[in-house]
Write a structure and sequence with these properties.
Radius of gyration: 22 Å
Shape: globular
Number of strands: 4
Strand order of the largest sheet: 1-4
Number of helices: 15
CATH topology: ABC transporter involved in vitamin B12 uptake, BtuC
Structural class: mainly alpha
Helix content: over 70%
Distance between the termini: 21 Å
CATH architecture: Orthogonal Bundle
């Protein structure tokens, strides 16, 4: 009987931790091993570098989206805001004669500004997050095209003097060997986001708002302020993503970015962030982003075209949402304690 009770307690602990938090890392390892066995030249340094390179800008905006989803909202504008910020910064450098460091700061400032607008619309004006961020998604696409005069923005090459910022995200040696230093930057941003989310008052309040907004308000939490801050953080990470995109790709086209937000949301959901709010982790989101990057690199190694990645990513997202629904149903169940059997002595 004791062994059975121990097994049951272990199962309960696994449920308390969350199936998605356990399954996401396991899925990442299994996918990598699967493609390594059945794909061509998947276990190579070049493939690993490609996986890390394709995770930068999606990883940054996914971290910001995690804050928004935990607060009980959604942000559909992070992809287009990232690209609008990048093209505005590129226009400032190419057409307005700004120095590179000022152009990069402008990219970050544009992302924060759009995040502030989203937070204002949702927290102050009480617009539904879906509608508010859908509107800013369209506005950001238009603003980027207007500022750039519907022309592409070209950033300096790595060999030029102003191309120094590209080495922050990818360092290429004289022998052509590349080091994905952007992975260190992404991990550093993730650590900062983890500290904010788990060790500060802001993080605690964002979790409280996502769990029960009215209860948080009655407890004295300034719901409007901290709900807005979640969107500001999403805007800031979109700005960082814009800098990363400019570092990886030299040319930024106008009206780009639509669809990137879906990959960011998918990464957060796959990593265990609940769409109902109140549950999520930054490092879980990173694992979800890497799962999609492994799919992107692994499917071509099996002679499958790129659109298969979209299909399988959709399957994985549906599975993650179903797990989230199952977890919420189990958490809402009322556990009735079992009565102890009376001993024979009684």
């Amino acid at each position: 009987m004791r062994d059975i009770n121990r097994k049951r307690s272990l199962i309960d602990k696994i449920r308390d931790v969350g199936l998605q938090r356990i399954l996401a890392p396991a899925a990442l390892v299994l996918l990598y091993i699967f493609f390594g066995i059945f794909g061509r030249n998947f276990f190579s340094c070049d493939t690993m570098v490609n996986i890390l390179d394709s995770s930068y800008y999606i990883g940054f905006i996914a971290i910001g989206v995690t804050f928004v989803i935990i607060s009980g909202g959604i942000d559909l504008s992070v992809g287009t805001v990232m690209m609008a910020a990048a093209i505005i910064g590129g226009t400032a450098y190419k057409s307005w004669g700004w120095p590179m460091w000022a152009s990069l700061l402008l990219i970050l400032a544009v992302g924060v500004a759009f995040g502030y607008i989203n937070g204002l619309l949702v927290s102050r004006l009480k617009l539904p997050p879906f509608i508010a961020t859908l509107g800013t998604m369209m506005i950001s696409m238009g603003v980027g095209s207007i500022v750039a005069n519907v022309r592409s923005a070209t950033f300096p090459t790595r060999a030029s003097e102003d191309g120094w910022f590209k080495s922050i995200f990818k360092l290429i040696g004289e022998d052509g060997f590349s080091i994905p230093t952007g992975a260190i930057v992404l991990f550093g941003v993730a650590v900062i986001a983890w500290i904010i989310l788990t060790k500060t008052k802001m993080g605690r309040y964002i979790f409280a708002i996502g769990s029960n907004k009215e209860a948080a308000r009655l407890s004295g939490v300034d719901v409007q302020k901290w709900e807005m801050m979640a969107y500001v953080i999403a805007g800031a990470t979109a700005g960082i993503g814009g800098i990363a995109f400019a570092a990886v790709y030299t040319t930024v086209m106008p009206a780009q970015g639509q669809g990137f937000e879906l990959y960011a949301i998918a990464g957060a959901v796959i990593g265990g962030t609940s769409l109902s709010g109140g549950i999520g982790t930054v490092f879980g989101t990173l694992i979800g982003v890497y799962i999609m990057s492994v799919l992107r690199a692994g499917l071509p190694s099996m002679d499958l075209q790129a659109h298969y990645q979209t299909f399988f990513t959709g399957v994985v997202v549906i599975g993650a949402v179903l797990l989230d629904i199952y977890r919420n149903e189990k958490a809402s169940e009322v556990k009735i304690p079992k009565k102890k059997k009376k001993s024979s002595r009684e």
